[in-house]
């Protein structure tokens, strides 16, 4: 099998086990304003940019009560909780081995994440192996117009690496991210979130794997 022109990686829930921590932070913030979130609602937040998530949570609060916090008020509660939790995130199975294998083969890599640059730096600090991914498109990148599930983040990552999306492999865990990578034209490998409804993922994606370890034989 031919190797890809590049590998484009999501971060949260794909390389680092952060999604339960993000969910905990959003849940506590929403609960502070009197509107606990249901599990399907928390799933809708996965893979999306912070401000997009905040707007969605505000809409859920608005539908159930009159007093609605501003985005800044909501994030003022949520961010300290998230920051304290996210530095505890551990690598996902196979993540370090896959990054190491891409390095050995000289495959270009990029991070295509909804997280802000500040948040990525916070989460990556305990994980020096992530420094191997030098090209990064963050959720607050000034050149990024739209977040996932739109394809922009993968398109921008491929553009900066000087490759075509159609020749690249993208790795995702969330439904929003999977839709974004597929819309960009990448070959998409999905490690589905264990609590996600399978119907939320694009039916066209056939490379559904249980961990990133399964990709290593394809790069021999």
Please describe what this structure looks like.
- By secondary structure, the protein is of the alpha/beta class.
- It has two domains: 7-17 and 91-219, 3-Layer(aba) Sandwich (Rossmann fold); 19-86, DNA polymerase, domain 1 (Orthogonal Bundle).
- It is 41% helix and 9% strand.
- It is built from eight helices and six strands, in the order βαααααβαβαβαββ.
- It has helices at residues 19-32, 39-45, 50-64, 71-86, 95-105, 117-124, 152-161, 175-184; strands at 7-9, 109-112, 135-137, 169-172, 187-190, 207-208.
- A six-stranded parallel sheet has the order 3-2-1-4-5-6, with helices on one face.
- α8 links the parallel β4 (169-172) and β5.
- The protein is globular.
- 43% of the residues are buried.
Radius of gyration: 17 Å
What name goes with the CATH superfamily of the largest domain? HAD superfamily/HAD-like
Number of helix segments? 8
What is the N-to-C order of secondary-structure elements (H for helix, E for strand)?
EHHHHHEHEHEHEE
Query: Which structural class do the helices and strands define?
Result: alpha/beta
Just give the CATH class of the largest domain: Alpha Beta
Domains, number = 2
Strand content: 5-15%
Overall, the morphology is: globular
Q: What name does CATH use for the topology of the largest domain? A: Rossmann fold
Number of DSSP E strands: 6
The name of the CATH architecture of the largest domain is: 3-Layer(aba) Sandwich
Strands ordered across the widest β-sheet: 3-2-1-4-5-6
How far is the N terminus from the C terminus?
9 Å
């Amino acid at each position: 099998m031919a190797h890809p022109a590049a590998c484009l990686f999501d971060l949260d829930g794909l390389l680092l086990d952060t999604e339960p921590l993000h969910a905990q932070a959003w849940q506590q913030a929403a609960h502070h304003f009197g509107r606990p979130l249901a599990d399907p609602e928390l799933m809708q937040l996965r893979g999306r940019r912070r401000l997009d998530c905040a707007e969605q949570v505000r809409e859920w609060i608005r539908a159930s009560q009159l007093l609605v916090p501003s985005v800044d008020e909501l994030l003022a509660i949520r961010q300290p909780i998230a920051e304290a939790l996210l530095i505890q995130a551990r690598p996902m199975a196979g993540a370090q081995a896959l990054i190491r294998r891409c390095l050995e083969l000289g495959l270009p890599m990029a991070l295509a994440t909804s997280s802000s640059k500040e948040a990525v730096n916070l989460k990556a600090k305990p994980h020096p192996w992530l420094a191997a991914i030098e090209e990064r498109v963050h959720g607050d990148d000034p050149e990024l117009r739209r977040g996932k599930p739109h394809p922009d983040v993968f398109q921008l990552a491929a553009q900066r690496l000087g490759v075509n999306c159609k020749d690249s492999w993208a790795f995702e865990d969330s439904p929003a991210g999977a839709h974004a990578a597929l819309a960009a034209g990448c070959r998409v490998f999905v490690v589905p979130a264990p609590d996600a409804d399978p119907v939320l993922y694009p039916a066209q994606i056939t490379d559904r794997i249980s961990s990133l370890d399964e990709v290593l034989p394809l790069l021999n």
